[in-house]
Amino acid sequence: MVRVLIILAFLGVLLSALALISCLSVEQRGDIRGMPRWAWVIVIIFVPLVGATCWFLFGRPVPVGRSGTAWRAGTGSPQPRRPVAPDDDPDFLRTINIDEATRRRDAELLRRWEEDMKRREEETRRRDPDGEG
């Protein structure tokens, strides 16, 4: 029974430490939900399990990839998120026009590379049949 209590106490301290680190590592103050940062720190320190749990449920910033829209401060309505990279942008991908000739040329080049690799492996096996350096 004592071991279980020690493990539970350790997990409580660990959860509180993770919550405190998470709270202090948020880069922008506006990203923290519910209360200001200093209030979250006090709650996490003085009410360890409840404060840490509340931080993870109600105070932590919403991850970027969680929804397609985000509420921007002062706009009063959700704004669509911009794609992070060009290959994530459907409009950009539609502008890329790869014609059939390019696809055939690329497939032929890949086929030649694979044949060359097989040929080299066969030559290596013939030169050194027992696999020694």
Query: Can you count the helices?
Result: 5
Largest sheet: 2 strands, antiparallel
Number of strands: 2
Order of helices and strands: HHHEEHH
Keywords:
133 residues; two-stranded antiparallel sheet; mainly alpha
Structural account:
The chain is mainly alpha-helical. It folds into 2 domains: 1-61, no CATH class; 83-128, no CATH class. 59% of the residues lie in helices and 5% in strands. It has helices at 2-24, 37-46, 48-59, 90-95, 100-127; strands at residues 69-71, 78-80. Strands 1-2 form a two-stranded antiparallel sheet. The longest helix is centred in the last third of the chain and has 28 residues, at 100-127. It is elongated and about 70 Å long.
Task: Explain briefly what this protein structure is.
The chain is mostly helical and 133 residues long.
List the helices and strands and how they pair.
Layout lengths: L1 H23 L12 H10 L1 H12 L9 E3 L6 E3 L9 H6 L4 H28 L6
Antiparallel strand pairs: 1-2
Helix pairs in contact: 1-2, 1-3, 2-3
